[in-house]
Amino acid sequence: MKVAVIGAGTMGSGIGQAFAQSDAVEKVYLCDIKQEFADGGKAKIKKNLDRQVAKGKMEQAKADEILGKVVTGLADIAVDPDLVVEAVLEKMDLKQSTFRNLQENIVKNPDCIYASNTSSLSITEIGTGLAKPVVGMHFFNPAPVMKLVEVIQGANTPDSVVAKVKEISETIGKTPVQVNEAAGFVVNRILVPMINEAINVYYTGTSDIQGIDTAMKLGCNHPMGPLELGDYIGLDVVLAIMDVLFADTHDNKYAASPLLRKMVRAKHLGVKTGIGFYKYNADRTKTPVDQL
Ligand code: CAA
Fold first, then answer.
1. Which atom of ligand 1 is nearest to the CA of 57?
2. For residue 119, which atom of ligand 1 is closest to its CA?
3. For 200-239, how does the pLDDT look when each residue is reduced to its tens digit (9 = 90+)?
4. Pocket test for ligand 1, best of 15, 120, 145, 224 (most atoms within 8 A of CB)
5. Cα–Cα distance measured from residue 237 to residue 2, given in angstroms and rounded to the nearest whole number
């Protein structure tokens, strides 16, 4: 199987790695709008594989084989994929134009499946006006590790495409859960309001950053506290999902925290900008930063 991943950021590179690690996948085209962005995505994959080798969890030869499957470039290298997974920015018009360009000008394989890794946008709307249907294939960060793939059926996604994407997910060692289109699908509908609530708990002075994260880690057995997880996902992504939930429902329970909005304006986005609820140091340690 050949897979094209469009967008080589955190999710795109992780998804590329998840596919390249499977014996069923012979090639991963990792694409972005600039060659250097695509190469940056491949460098992230190399770093992850190097870590596995250093820990003695993977042979160097296996790491080389996985990395050797990843070809980087602009979207125009994706001529013959069996599956396209779009992981560009969460902007409806960008996603629509990306699929249109791929379907009309680039991909020559008539049986190619077109999937979007959107974290909350409407699959039906993404697919509107396109010649070929779009299906949701939603991975979780870090994509090489997290087992779940939400497979989302839009109003115009045929059952056969959904079934095929569930099968592909299993082939690469993931567990698919089929969901109907709804803002936030299942996980983000539940998880992201929880993170937003944690931000409000901090904003209203109930506890400090470490207190909230420690409470949720030890009290609920979550692997990361909600503020740490917000930083990890990216606070801009958290805000975008809250805004989609609110726009779709007009329910005040989905109103984004004013502090979240302020931090996004300040580019305090978390790990990706080096600062959020924590400051991320070069030695991989992190220290809480008061945001009030
Ligand atoms: N890429 C690849 N592999 C990674 C990785 C990354 N970015 N980060 C960690 N790993 C691997 C490590 O190499 C390690 O592998 P081995 O067990 O084979 O050695 C394994 O994951 C565990 O890593 P660590 O021992 O370093 O650290 P940990 O035990 O603390 O686990 C974690 C790290 C897996 C990220 C864990 O903290 C966790 O599960 N956190 C919650 C993540 C989560 O909730 N993700 C969902 C976010 S929501 C989302 O993504 C959807 C959306 O649309 C916004």
1. 18
2. 53
3. 999 999 999 999 999 999 999 999 999 999 999 999 999 9
4. 145
5. 29
